[in-house]
Amino acid sequence: MGLFVRLRILLLITFIILQNYASAQWQQSSGPPGGFVRSIISEGSNIYATTGGGVRVSSNNGDSWTFQNNGLTSRDTKSIIKSDNYIFVSGDENVFRSGDSGLHWESAGDELDGYYVKCLLNCNDVLFAGTYLRGIYRSADEGNSWTPVNYNMPAKYVYYLATDGNYIFAGTYQNGMYRSADLGDTWIPINNGLTESNIMAIICFGGKIFASTLSSGVFVSIDNGGTWSHLSPELPSIKGFAEKSGVLYAASFGSGVYRSMDSGQTWESINNGLGESDIWSIGVSDTDIFVGVTSGHIYRRSISGGSWSLCSSSAFFACTGSVSSSGSNVIAGTHGSGFYISDNEGLYWSRVSSIWTVETRAVISSGATVYAGTDMLGIFKSTNCGVSFSMVNAGLTSAWIQSFAICNGCLFAGSGEEGVFVTTNGGNSWSPVNDGLGSLDILSLASDGTNIYAGTSDAGIYMSDDLGDNWTAINNGLYSESINTIQYVNGYLFAGIKTGGIYRSVDNGANWSKASNGLPDNTNIRCMHVHENKVFAGTGSGSVYISYDYGDNWINIGNGLTGTSVLSLHAYGDYLYAGLDASGVWQYPLSQTELICDCEPGETDSVSPINILDIVYLINYKFKSGPAPNPYILCNGDPNKDCTVNVLDIVYLVNYKFKNGPIPSTCYAWVSACGLPLTK
Predict the structure, then answer these.
(1) Quick one: residue 144, left, alpha or beta (phi over 0 = left, psi -120 to 50 = alpha)?
(2) CATH 2.130.10.10 in the chain, residues?
(3) Which of 72, 33, 74, 75 is nearest to 54 (CA)?
(4) H-assigned helices in 439-515
(5) Is the bond preceding 609 in cis, omega lying within 30 degrees of 0?
(6) Any idea what DSSP says for residue 630?
(7) H/E stretch holding 221
(8) 474-478 long-range contacts, Cβ below 8 Å, gap at least 24?
């Protein structure tokens, strides 16, 4: 055979190997797309914008933009402010700060970890954080520590914070306006004259307080919120205000930008060149106005006048917190960028507009029926595989639903602050079932067909054997009380913990033991999923692991992922789907998860059981050019699973057979330690 022919064959073999290797990698789908620019601030020529895909930063007044998310453990960002030494950004899981113009981010204290922080405020160097479900927090040390300041503040949803330097104003969803005169120590309601209690934005300007509402326009107060009057002419759906050099600007969702030159008495639209009118945020620099829109684009206009121009248009991906399937549809619920379905395995995604909020916290499906839990609008139900939805909230006292489970025809829903609800009639009515629960923040739910298990954020796991009528704590042996996810399969109950890896119970939760072999120490388990007796786990560091032996060993199959948190996993059709933080939905061929583990480490001559003949066989191989261990050199010849065949394996077998030493590794344990493929 000629050299040229041999080279062609070698290249062909190499190509085939590379193709097979590539086929086993994760592939990013086309979406879902991110969007929703929620807050814009400036610091000199630096412009910062929070989006559903992280923090976008421009160092040249908007000429060019990059995402700067290093250190953000959640990239669904909401509000951004500055102090003397830091830039602060809030998200759906914490507050972060940067001391180097956004190049690196760190958690700002521990008290807000896991909290949805909607808005931030700096008042005279004291920081305030408005949350969903947890009230208002205050920091006097630039975010090193936070304390709750909620006296006479009953609102579950603190949507906006503003100050005139003396008072702090809090706009809420469903509870109207509040004011504090003592840096948050006490609050009083200030709703006299307001005809709507859903506050979207506030600004203190020219001795007045302007407050926009969800559907009733803008109200103005000239007595620090003591009384309010409706602004006329009406400005519709104002999502944000900004001011510069005595000029007041208002950004409308649907109608573009308005400007007032006389402290809000009269307004004019300034939309020339503005290609999108569904505006979510507005900010100003020394020379320009910036607005952010639903698509994630940012527009810029000179303060001195002229037309708007598109200055940031590159696409990005959503934070995909929930993945499921129904019929031929793959379903993706995102954190902050809407609800999507794909009927072609992720090639294209379509947004479902009948779920009105952009925040989906949980999805579950059964046949053609799909339920979606949201952050502030409760539960939506679809009977056509997720194509359209309607609200089903009768009996719910919580609008934040973050987990589901089905047991014996009953659907259970876990809320963020009101515990567990159950429906026996497909969501037509719900009833609370919380007797015995030590926490009402239910992060996860699971069922074994008889029992219901509830994982909480701060009190561990509870079990009910009577469909939720009574709950009992089952935490013996658990490392942590913060339970991100629970899964059950074939008598094994798994708990994924925020900082402690995976725990397993074989007695319905009565006792737990660590089952994290193959996982890095203190792994943050964000999600788990079971498919055909295989258990999958997604981590906060962006990896996916698989266990073939019910958690005895875990194998990393995350090669090719972006490294952002894996928030959800779901198997459907030919793929395992993973929802990632600010990276959309990814796919992994399920065919690549089929492992036929036909290796017995230490069984070198392929004749069971392991005996002295295997020791002799291995000696002959290593020192007398005898035949190799079979069917695999590595694995069969490596009982101590150090991923090489050497004299230590001979010593290991001698110790095992004649000195009561440890037993040889199992095939799954060997694969977990050394990886694939098994080498012949």
Answers:
(1) alpha
(2) 39-312, 320-592
(3) 75
(4) none
(5) yes
(6) S
(7) strand 218-221
(8) 474/505, 474/508, 474/509, 474/510, 475/512, 476/510, 476/511, 476/512, 477/503, 477/511, 477/512, 477/513, 478/503, 478/512
Q: What angle do CA 581, 586, 592 make, to 5 degrees?
A: 135
Distances (CA, A) of 349 to 34, 331, 379, 414, 419: 12, 9, 22, 28, 33
pLDDT digits (tens, 9 = 90+) for 266-278: 999 999 999 999 9
Give ∠ CA 510-514-517 in degrees, rounded to 5. Answer: 150
> Which residues lie closer than 8 Å to 265 by C-beta, 6 or more apart?
none
Distance, in Å, from the CA atom of 120 to the CA atom of 131, rounded to the nearest integer, reads 9
SS3 state of residue 58: strand
pLDDT score of 433:
98
412 vs 424: CA distance, rounded Å: 9
- The reported pTM is 0.89
Query: Dihedrals φ, ψ of 641, to 5°?
Result: 45, 50
Which fold would CATH assign to domain 39-312?
Answer: Methylamine Dehydrogenase; Chain H (2.130.10)
| Cβ neighbours of 60 (radius 10 Å) | 10
pLDDT in tens, 120-142: 999 999 999 999 999 999 999 99
367's CB contacts (< 8 A; 6+ apart) are 326
What digits encode the pLDDT tens for the residues 297-313?
999 999 999 999 999 99
The dihedral through the CA atoms of 272, 65, 101, 294 has a sign that is positive
Q: Which helix (H) or strand (E) holds 670?
A: helix 667-674
Question: Any bridge partners for residue 268, and if so which?
Answer: 259
Q: How does DSSP classify residue 237?
A: S
Q: Which strand ranges, in their side-by-side order, compose the sheet holding 390-391?
A: 360-366, 369-374, 379-382, 390-391
DSSP structure string for 79-120: EEEE-SS-EEEEESS-EEEESSTTSS-EE--STTTT--EEEE
Q: Hey, what CATH class is 320-592 in? A: mainly beta
Residue 479 is given by DSSP the state S
Residues comprising the chain, all counted: 680
Tell me how far apart the terminal alpha carbons of the chain are, to the nearest angstrom. Answer: 26
- The dihedral formed by the CA atoms of 353, 355, 359 and 362, expressed in degrees to the nearest 10: -130
Q: Tell me how far CA of residue 526 lies from CA of 485, 486, 493, in angstroms.
A: 7, 10, 16
Summarize pLDDT for 345-400 with one digit per residue, the tens: 999 999 999 999 999 999 999 999 999 999 999 999 999 999 999 999 999 999 99
Backbone angles phi, psi at 334, to 5 degrees: -105, 160
Q: What is the DSSP letter of 236?
A: P
Residue 38 pLDDT > 90: yes
The three-class DSSP label of residue 607 is coil
**Which single residue is written with the structure tokens 């973050």?**
402
Strands annotated E in 466-591:
472-473, 483-489, 492-497, 501-505, 513-514, 525-531, 534-539, 544-547, 555-556, 566-572, 575-580, 584-589
Amino acid occupying residue 489: V
